[in-house]
Amino acid sequence: MKSMKSRLWPIAPSVLAILTGVIAGLGISKGAIAADHLNLEEGLPAEVEDAYPLGFGGFEFQGVFHYDRVEGEDIFTLDPRLEWGFARNWQAKLSVPVVLGSEENDIGDISAEVFYNFNTETLSTPAIALSASADFPTGSDSEGIDPTLKLLVTKSIGTGNNLDRLHLNLGWTYNSEQQDNERQNALSVALGYSRRLGSETILVSDIVFEQEKEEDAEIYLIELGVRHQLSPLNVLAIGAGVGLGEESPDLRITAGFQQSF
User: Fold this and answer.
1) CB under 8 Å to 80, separation ≥6 — which residues?
2) Number of domains present in the structure of the chain
């Protein structure tokens, strides 16, 4: 198998061109909003997200690395993302994943998402948000634009300084170009828990269920990780997960960072 560097090199210019074009188009302001290590981002370090968007006017670059061991194969995914708090309680995200593996070396499906937070939590009411995204068929063997809707709920538990919180994500994806042996509708559920381990570090854990596009293929995953704020503008994340069931990854390792501008 080729080295990871040699596989990535032909793809990297395309990814950088896409992200650079978006940055130029948005016209990023010079003022920066501090990164918030308490807010949970997908894959940093676990799949579960909280119900809060990036702050109004904020702009963030995220780099996420996944290693999955699946049925004896090593699959690497690099997922650079851009997030923009374009209005109060609103957030936009663009993701351009790169997949590397035993037989794969390609840009994945580009994803664009909008996220809206309906409310902050109260003593009796959780924070609730809704996201809508679309995956565009830029990867090999991809067809059609597949939309996803996700409901996100976050609620604090207890009154201590550790900020214990529960998170629930419910997702639905529509397969617009259903092929033989594929689902047209796929569901996902993530139940997570987070708490402070100190002023700059939080612990994140979750249980994930996800229906794959292939019929009868389902993923069950248990994950644990930490998010650590290195500086007001930088957050690092690292985590690991194990799969339950034949279609699930035997092992998942995740590492990533957030850079606010």
Assistant:
1) 15, 19, 61, 62, 63, 64, 95, 96, 97
2) 1
Beta strands 59-70; 90-95: pairing state: unpaired
State the pLDDT at residue 31: 55
Q: Give the pLDDT of residue 32.
A: 62
Residue 103 three-state SS: coil
pLDDT at 17: 55
Q: Are 63 and 82 in contact (CB under 8 A)?
A: no
Quickly list DSSP for 3-63: -HHHHHTTTHHHHHHHHHHHHHHHT--S------TTS-BTTBSSS---S-PPPTT-EEEEE
Instruction: Classify burial at 114, counting beta carbons within 10 Å of its beta carbon; exposed 0-12, middle 13-18, buried 19 or more.
Output: middle
Residue 168 is encoded by which pair of tokens? 């629930």
Q: What pLDDT is recorded for position 22? A: 52
Q: Token pair 């570090």 is at which residue?
A: 201
Provide the residue range defining the domain that includes 37.
4-260
Specify the pLDDT at position 21: 55
The HSE-up count of residue 207 (CA atoms within 13 Å, CB side) is 3
Q: Are 50 and 154 in contact (CB under 8 A)?
A: yes
**Which CATH number characterizes residue 121's domain?**
2.40.160.40
Low-confidence residues of the chain, pLDDT below 50? 1-9, 12, 16, 23, 28-30
93 touches 82 (CB < 8 A): yes
pLDDT score at 5: 41
Instruction: Return all residues near 246 (Cβ < 8 A) that are at least 6 apart.
Output: none
Read off the pTM. 0.86
